[in-house]
Amino acid sequence: MSDLVNEYTSTMRVASYEVGAQCILKLSVLLRMCQETSGRNLELLGLGYEKMCADGIIFLLITNHAKIKRMPVHKEEITIKTHPRGVSGAQFYRDFKIYSGDELIIDVMQTSIIADANTHKVLRPKLFLDYGVFSGEKVPDEEKIPKIMVTQPLPFMGERIVRISDLDYNCHLNNTVYGDIITDFLPGGGMGRQFSEVQINYTTESALGDVLKIYAQEQDGHVLLQGFNERGCGFTAAAKLMPISREEIEFARTRIQ
Question: Among 48, 101, 173, 224, which residue's Cβ finds the most Cβ atoms within 10 Å?
Answer without folding.
Answer: 173
